[in-house]
Amino acid sequence: MTRLSGGLIDRDTPLDFTFNGKNYQGFKGDTLASALLANGVQLMGRSFKYHRPRGVFSAGSEEPNALVELREGARQEPNTRATVAELFEGLSARSQNHMGSLERDLLGINDLFAPFFAAGFYYKTFMWPKAFWEKLYEPTIRRAAGLGSLSMLPDPDDYDKGFLHCDLLVIGGGAAGLAAALTAGRAGADVVLADEDFQLGGRLLAESHRLDGAEATVWAAAVQAELASLSNVRIMPRTTVFGVYDHGVYGAVERVADHLADPGGNVRQTLWRITAKRAVLAAGATERHIPFADNDRPGIMLAGAMRAYANRWAVAPVKRGEDPIAIFTNGDDGHRTALDLMAKGAKVLGVVDPRPDAPRFGDYELFAGATVTGTKGRLGLRSIQITRDGRSEWHPVGALGVAGGWNPNVHLASHHRGRPVWNEGILAFVPGQGGPKGLHPAGAAAGKGATAQALSDGMGVAIAALGEIGIKAREITLPEAEDRDQKQVAFWHVPGKKRAWVDFQNDVTVKDIALAHKENMRPVEHLKRWTTLGMATDQGKTANISALAVMAELTGKSIPETGTTIFRPPYTGVSLSVLGGGDTGPDFRPRRLTPTHGWADAQGAVFVEAGQWMRAQYFPRPGETHWRQTVDREVLAVRAGVGLCDVTTLGKVDVQGADAGELLNRVYANMMGTLKVGKVRYGLMLREDGHAYDDGTCARLGEDHYVVTTTTANAGLVYSRMEFARQCLWPDLDVQLISTTDAWAQIAVAGPKSRALLSRVVDDFEISNDAFPFMSCAELTVCGGLRARLFRISFSGELAYEIAVPARFGQALMERLMEKGADLGVTPYGTEALSVLRIEKGHAAGAELNGQTTAAMLGLGRMVSQKKDSIGAVMSRREGLAQDTRRLVGLKPVAAGKQIMAGSHLFAQGAVQNMETDQGWVTSSCYSPHLQSHIALGFLEDGDARMGEVIVAANPVEGEEMKVEVVSAHFVDPEGGRLRD
Amino acid sequence: MTDLMPITVLGNTAALAETFGALIIRENAGLALASLALRKGQAAPSPFGLALPGVGRAITKDEYGAFWTGLDQWMIEAEGKAEADFAASLRAEAPGQSVTEQTDGWVAFDITSDQGAAPIEMLMRKLVNIDTRSFDAGSAARTLLGHLGVFVIRRSEDRLTVIGMRSVAGTIWHDLSVTARRLERQSVAAVSDR
Questions:
Q1: Is the separation of the CB atoms in A869 and A915 below 8 Å?
Q2: How distant is the Cα of A656 from the closest Cα of chain B, in angstroms?
Q3: Could you please report the per-residue DSSP string of A630-665?
Q4: Which residues of B touch A592 (CB under 8 A)?
Q5: What is the C-alpha separation between A724 and A721, in angstroms, rounded?
Q6: CA distance A603 to A620
Q7: How confident is the model over A412-452, as pLDDT tens digits?
Q8: Directed axis angle between helix A524-531 and helix A510-518, to 10°?
Q9: What gap in Å lies between CA A176 and CA A481, rounded to an integer?
């Protein structure tokens, strides 16, 4: 055990956990990393590329090394940072990315081949032979790549989402964040305070500085208590604000139950969208290191992290308590670590500081003007080489803290393309102008990291931010705090021949950066991609600026001239489960059910998804073993008797107003204003570019009242397009629109006996052919007084109607029609039979109206009225479109019994099959039980003049082809006598 | 009167009601709806004595109500008249305007709290991107709930109505009930939820 005294752990609550199967004990308040360190475990993982032994490097979410697999079974979670994994009773963790044991990783052999794995390795190595890429190289690389493994089991936990609104969002609960939140909270502003840690305080928890003469945690706890007492403040620990989005929306993940072994009925995580009028970015700063030879051994970590482990978690990060610890720093800040460790009773070797005039702040050995030039220790640091004035000495140590300065966490400020700017005074990038509007950096995130500065900046920034939205906040009394200027020099790396790691997670060394420079991959974005610097789970939080500095040195430019990387969301990894919002399986997306869904289900219908709708596809009967049997039966029943199909899904738009007809004239290609009351007309809409858009019927129920029907797929689109036309194109028209798709259950009653059936349900309504001919419509009552609408329209080519009743009565009407039509052989049919019926009749549907076809191609060219203008009419006559000679035709296989594949392309017999000779394609195909043959529809060049010609339907990709005869698209009743009978 | 038996939006014969801790969610199968849109240049009428509300507002008077749905457009509500021809009644109250039957185009879920505003607002925070601070009694909004567009009406501090497309009633019920159930489970933690 290497526990020290004090700390913010609860020693009365010990927690048992395992790492790689071995039992350990920590305390409540520990992270997995602090608990492992307390047990003398330094080795926690293997590096990505070279499989080098690695230990914990930081004490926060920036961790590049200590990635573990957490938990067991379905909750197994790869690539979890041990530094932020809260310890809980029974936690089990495993190291990852090794073959064999962690200590004897067989893939450690990669390290011996390091010279071959230099920057750009993939790009250079796997160039040839070309064929090897897909079959050999890529699979091999993919096998070797990646760190942790997935359980391959479904996530058993529940995830949630939510929305918050506030005046001020405070991101980070350290000194600046707490001061900002308290200032705003006291001013009565609605405040959300989010912090990724489970305890508020930020660096106040990690430092030994006192506030008002007491431990900083006393002040932090008092502030937290006051904030908790304010009803206008919401405190959200374990919540990472990961991105800034448009309109002041911030994405945040609250880890509700990540710190529990089992969420116990609670959600695991919640995705919050926080709409904030203003935000304070008090995200603190991340310490950077100083690359030197072999600087990646377990036991080498950031000096600031060392302070956190000592002060917050009461841990000396060594294997044995008596092992001495050394500090390597380029400024005053690192010295604090030595002082804090000594105050806690840890053994300190001394401080290595490259400044010849480095100050000494306490009773420790000072190696002024010196650097660390080497390390030893296979699985953990055993000694370091300190070089001064050309003389080198080896010193045994158990750990080394490295302090290279602090980088403000500018990440969120650089979303929305905000560019950080270089501050030479603190040798770091700070948030620049042009970042997210309303986001104000404060404290260490703004480069003001001394505690007193952070406190007063947090307060000041909150006052200013609230002032912008008219909330007057007063200054609060801040505690007395340290305000020492931390001097440092620009010392970015220790030059040398051996490998010095810059980016630990991706095994990028100074040499790799030098190579990238040599190979002219000098711009930052090139450097990143050539070397993989800054990629993967840590996104280079501890590496990016050091790498820039090294590149700057090599190019002889300044750091700001060399550039900066910008950051995209998310700040840290966000699980897909929480982004999904919790709904999986059948609840993953909305399901629209028709009014007769329950009835169809009870009939044993097989359903098919049509957009969001679930539609009955066919209704199998006992004894039917293949869907085709069912569909053939349903089709023949419609042709011979009467069938029923729920067609509620077709869009319905109610159009009213004095100019209703005029609006319809302008959105339909054909004339609608002339339609007589009580009549229905088939209508075609064009897109603005002149292509066919949607078809349907338009019924005129009154002088200034129409009902437009659309295809199922385009129902919402057509409605919104009509609204656009009404509101934006022609606001002068007196016309009002509203969707009624869901309001009316609509049932198609089709077949020669449909009139007989309907006559049994209508109330005192004359339904004879003379009184209610083809393309009539009426409002009437059915079944003893229920209001209904009747349309005599046909999609099948048979005598047919569609009857609509208020949706709640749809199922009852369906049942009534089934009951009343039993002697007529009434048969429910699904979308499959509906499709066969319309192909037999040659009616266009989605496959023909696919956005590439014109009215002329559909054989509806004359519907585009020349007498008026309408959307797309002029464009439909443009050169290039009007000359398209492809026309809708019917196709029959020459060899009986052969199926014509939809999607096949059409060619003249004997022609070479390529793009130039392509004459069209097959759009729809089915077996016609009526014709007892496979049939198809398709578009064919000059198709209307080629009846009887035999052509080829081919699939050149698969080398398949068949001969087909060109016939009329109207396989059934081309004269249309049946539907008019 | 027709002898056809209506079914509810969820395919049942009786409207659903379920309790989730402080919240009760009830399907309001009796709510009749009809849209009212003004013809060009017409003054707003006062159907059933309702003073038609402005942007983002809703009002109720006796069994009638109205909420704003767009420029010169409202949805007019009538409790317990879902099976009558309410559009015809409204047409008589607003002659010369565009009236469309909407009753069965929608499902209405009434959510009531027996512990004041807090449970209602907690539910809202999990479901809709609406600032509960300013969404007081008489507020109405068209917004997204899950993946679906809905109307949300704050009838009073402790009563909310969610009106969505009838065909997706099952999905809306899923969203409401799953969320309410989660909040019920978290009710201990919810005491400190602000």
A1: no
A2: 6
A3: HHHHHHHHHHHS-EEEE-TTS-EEEEESTTHHHHHH
A4: 165, 167-168
A5: 5
A6: 8
A7: 999 998 999 999 999 999 999 889 999 999 999 999 999 99
A8: 120
A9: 12
Contact A742 B186 (CB under 8 A): no
Report how far residue A287's alpha carbon sits from residue A353's, in angstroms, rounded to the nearest whole number: 16
- Average pLDDT over chain A reads 94
Determine contact: B8 vs chain A, CB below 8 A.
yes
Name the pLDDT band for A145 (thresholds 50, 70, 90).
Answer: low
Residue A130, phi then psi, degrees to nearest 5: -55, -40
Closest-CA residue in chain B for A615? B167
User: Does the beta carbon of B188 lie under 8 angstroms from any beta carbon of chain A?
Assistant: no
Residue B70 identity (one-letter amino acid): G
Q: Coil, helix or strand for A898?
A: coil
The residue of B1, B3, B4, B124 whose CB has the most chain A CBs within 10 angstroms, and thus the best one to mutate to test that interface, is B4
Residue A322 contacts residue A4 (beta carbons within 8 Å): no
DSSP secondary structure string for all residues of A592-638: EE-TTHHHHHHTTPEEEEETTEEEEEE---TT--SHHHHHHHHHHHH
Choose the closest CB to B185 out of A165, A265, A808: A265
Helix axes A216-229, A175-186, angle to 10 degrees: 30
pLDDT (tens digit, 9 = 90+) per residue, A59-106? 999 999 999 999 999 999 999 999 999 999 999 999 988 888 888 888
**B37–A656: do the CB atoms touch at under 8 Å?**
yes
Bridge partners of A652, per DSSP, are A709
Lowest mean pLDDT, pick from A676-690, A717-731, B178-192: B178-192
**What residue in A sits closest to B171 (Cα-Cα)?**
A590
Q: Among A256, A273, A593, which would you mutate to test the B interface (most chain B Cβ atoms within 10 Å of its Cβ)?
A: A593
For A596, name the nearest residue in chain B, comparing CA atoms only.
Answer: B11
The C-alpha atoms of residue B9 and residue B149 are separated, in whole angstroms, by 17
Q: From the CA atom positions of chain A, what is the Rg in Å?
A: 37
Instruction: Give pTM, 2 decimals.
Output: 0.93
Give the tens place of pLDDT for each residue, A926-971: 999 999 999 999 999 999 999 999 999 999 888 899 999 999 999 9
Q: Would you state the pLDDT for residue A146?
A: 67
**Looking at chain B from residue 108 to 167, which residues have their Cβ under 8 Å from any Cβ of chain A?**
125-133, 146-148, 165-167
- Closest alpha carbon within chain B to A658: B39
Contact in structure between B145 and B93 (CB atoms under 8 Å): no
Facing A190 at nearest CB: one of B41, B130, B133: B133
Instruction: Name residue, tokens 């841990």.
Output: A315
Is B1 at the interface with chain A, CB within 8 A? yes
Q: Are residues A652 and A740 in contact, defined by beta-carbon separation less than 8 angstroms?
A: yes
Task: For the beta carbon of residue A918, count every other beta carbon within 10 angstroms.
Answer: 15
pLDDT band at B190 (very low <50, low <70, confident <90, very high): very low
Cis-peptide, bond into residue B6, ω within 30° of zero:
no
Q: Work out whether strand A210-211 and strand A920-928 pair parallel, antiparallel, or are unpaired.
A: unpaired
A240-290 pLDDT, tens per residue? 999 999 999 999 999 999 999 998 889 999 999 999 999 999 999 999 999
**Could you tell me the pLDDT band of residue A1, with boundaries at 50, 70 and 90?**
low
Is there a contact between A591 and B82 if contact means CB atoms under 8 Å apart? no
Instruction: Check CB contact under 8 Å for A742 and B131.
Output: no
CB contact under 8 A, A590 and B148: yes
Is pLDDT larger for residue A584 or for residue A355?
A355
Out of B4, B9, B133, the one facing A783 most closely (by C-beta) is B4
Contact A86, A198 (CB under 8 A): yes
CA A609 vs CA A81, A743, A828: distances in Å: 42, 21, 18
Do the Cβ atoms of B168 and A590 come within 8 Å?
yes
